[in-house]
Amino acid sequence: MKVAMISLGCAKNLVDSEGLLGRLVEHGDVEIVGDPDGADGVIVNTCGFLQSSRDESESITREMLALKEAGRVKWVAMAGCLVERYGQELQTDFPDVTFLGFDDYQRVEDVVRDADSGGRNAPPPPSHRGAREHQGIHGNRLLLTQESFAYLRISEGCNLKCSFCVIPAIRGAFKSRPIDDIVGEAAALAMTGVRELVVVSQDSTYYGRDDGAFALPTLLRELSAVDGIEWIRLQYMNPAFTTDETLDAIAEIPAVVPYMDIPIQHAADATLKRMRRAPGTDGIRRCLLAARDRIPGLTLRTTVMVGFPGETDGEFGEMLDFLDEIRFDRLGCFRFSPEPGSFAIDLPNPVDDETKEARFHALMERQSAITKQSQQARVGQVLPVMVDLPDAGEDGWAIGRTAGDSPEVDCVVLLEGDGWTRGGPVPVEIIDRHEFDLIGRAAGDAR
């Protein structure tokens, strides 16, 4: 049976997709193909976080159903957060689709065989997630990333009550994976040629707290001992739980790159209070300044939101001032989306779409200048680079990343010439900048 996978949403969802594919290959007579057109079936692993992601998930599912109507696939399945959140409604809108709830992941091969025989698998019942934990799907994964890196999910769920977010209702309570399981998965990934682990979680810094103690520094030290792993990168850190011990681990463990992805969401105390986000502006500032002080060569990435209900011009101005003060090297920005089931959907004083859009562009214009300045400072340096795409494409560039760039969300290094080898890191001389990306050439004989 030929099965295609379309994975949408975040890196944590991608790990689920890779686990599903790995289980299908291990437990079923299945060949994984890249193109849905001509496959026996296709699984759309959906995202349900924002309205835009829900729209994308449903649109792509309809495209796959059009292939089914044309006789070019036999069955279409939907999995992921959208199914877990809106399964009953989706069953009405998509009667010809089979559904994979989180509880079906450990028997995906049975669901697929049934779908191939014309059967249907029902979506999970509504509002069942709060009573149980999503255990995830681990073990052998069929990687959908470049071979140089892989995402490593260290927990499931979330215990925070941010007013704009419904992830706890979808994914359940925060549950740390055992260190031995994580390290074993890391070793298996290294055996496949992975050289960089990108640690992901709903809150990486919360790791271990559900079992009584912050354990991220211990985990990092265990991961750094895995043979073949050169870089370990932390994403989704929370300033409220970023301890001095974690900062010291980043600074002291050679394999842990000096990079922190630490979403702050906003920088005005009044907005943060409505968001139910700790530790407030001063607490965020103390965390970031401590990180810069303790970690040499640190690259800081954050995510912020504009247009949250009640956000005034003054509060938005406070965030701009904070960005000018801290000068994040990398930044992503969301426009607030009112999510059904979230506390924020009932907050007064919504911000109109025109104002959201204006604030988004004003913020990104301000940040663009900061990021370009940060990148320009790297010109003339010799930096270690992880090579993701060693073969120069039609534009003539191989593609790599510095330690300050997370895959798929940050900047890249355009590498001159050919003969590069996937992986690394290798020393690269940075000779120029093109907008946000750097241009480099091999330093000495390094390729």
Label the structural class: alpha/beta
User: What does the largest sheet look like?
Assistant: 6 strands, parallel
Into how many domains do the coordinates divide? 3
**Separation of termini?**
40 Å
Rg, Cα atoms, Å: 22 Å
Contiguous low-pLDDT stretches (5 residues minimum) are: 130-134
**CATH level 1 name of the largest domain:** Alpha Beta
Strand order of the largest sheet: 6-9-10-11-12-13
CATH fold node name of the largest domain: pyruvate-formate lyase- activating enzyme
String of helices and strands: EHEEHEHEHEEHEHEHEHEHHEHEHEEEEE
CATH superfamily (homologous) name of the largest domain: tm_1862 like domain
Round the mean pLDDT to the nearest integer and report it.
Answer: 94
Strand content: 15-25%
| Helix count, DSSP H or I runs of 4 or more residues | 12
CATH 2nd-level architecture of the largest domain: Alpha-Beta Horseshoe
Estimate percent helicity: 25-40%
Shape: globular
Number of strand elements? 18
How is this fold's topology laid out?
Elements: E1 2-7, H1 11-27, E2 31-33, E3 41-46, H2 51-69, E4 75-80, H3 81-93, E5 98-100, H4 108-116, E6 149-153, E7 155-156, H5 167-171, E8 175-176, H6 179-191, E9 196-200, H7 216-224, E10 231-234, H8 244-252, E11 256-261, H9 269-275, H10 280-294, E12 299-306, H11 313-326, E13 330-335, H12 353-376, E14 382-389, E15 398-402, E16 413-415, E17 423-434, E18 437-442
Parallel strand pairs: 1-2, 1-3, 3-4, 4-5, 6-9, 9-10, 10-11, 11-12, 12-13, 16-18
Antiparallel strand pairs: 7-8, 14-15, 14-17, 15-16, 17-18
